[in-house]
């Protein structure tokens, strides 16, 4: 066995469904899945039922986090009329999330004036994370520049989008971006094969889109899973919701790419730990993961910790198995078992943790 040690990883984009969707996932199962994947901190999205858009719904989310096995930050959600209210809550959040396209849940902005109100009110020291595809993405980059407001672009998936991001970054736009493992490793051909289990927003692109993400990996800031669990019954139902789980499969997939010489280990740590902490302004939790790099295995739903119990990567051969995770001095995960108790997870945004 050959052992590799890496610092604990950070996922800046997950949907743990708690409160309101705990039959899909909750803060305990979602953070257990994170630890099993070598991830010691997650940033959780606000499209809950009800959405996290004001002080009351933020308190309900904070109550749900009492079950967390790993560390976490929480996003607030932007609506057409809550710009001033969410700005007042900014110091309790990792960022503001804005949906400019139809996805899952009720959060969506359509009025430019509402989007601009958020850009005016939201304090520039935390990013605005945005779901925007195609032309909407171009509009958001213009807003980031006009307001000199850091914007984090979620799940970039198309060749034209990453080309635009490169050009805008070269001209100094205050933007960062993430790509997901599903857009790096799957295409529309897989979407046909997988049916509802390969359906998410943004949808899977062409092989040319996927290849463009790899070719432009140097302008990508983070790999984030967009872990979006839905039950098998929901996926097989008449109106399958978009989204796929990813917390437990991202590291083996990326380590396999490292093994194939597609990126370096140093770059992996930048994409999955250093940049996430820098962009969202917290000190990364102290922690280490131990990986068996000789362990070639086939990804399977057996033994997954996510409550949804499936993966779009079923049957994929990967290299690298997470053996141990140590978080703040505690053996938090070992060989399939989560050892950090519920409630061990800490909020990232405490005075102690703030990077600036
Ligand atoms: O596929 C997706 N699922 N895209 C999103 O933007 C939302 C997510 C979800 O919450 O299920
Ligand atoms: Zn999204
Ligand atoms: Zn998402």
Note down, in words, how this protein is organized.
This protein is of the alpha/beta class and 356 residues long. The model has no long low-confidence stretch (mean pLDDT 96). α6 (159-170) packs parallel to α9 (207-215). The chain has one domain (3-338): TIM Barrel, CATH 3.20.20.140. The protein contains 12 helices and 13 strands. Helix content is 31%, strand content 21%. Strands 2-3-4-5-6-7-8-9 form an 8-stranded parallel β-sheet. It has a 5-stranded antiparallel β-sheet with strand order 1-10-11-12-13. Bound molecules: (4S)-2,6-dioxohexahydropyrimidine-4-carboxylic acid and zinc ion (2 copies). One zinc ion binds next to loops. Residues 103, 131, 154-155, 201 line the site of one zinc ion.
Report the radius of gyration as a whole number of Å: 19 Å
What is the topology, as strand order, of the major beta sheet?
Answer: 2-3-4-5-6-7-8-9
Give the number of helices. Answer: 12
Task: Please identify the structural class as seen in this structure.
Answer: alpha/beta
List segments where confidence is low: pLDDT < 50 over at least 5 consecutive residues.
Answer: none
Architecture (CATH level 2) name: Alpha-Beta Barrel
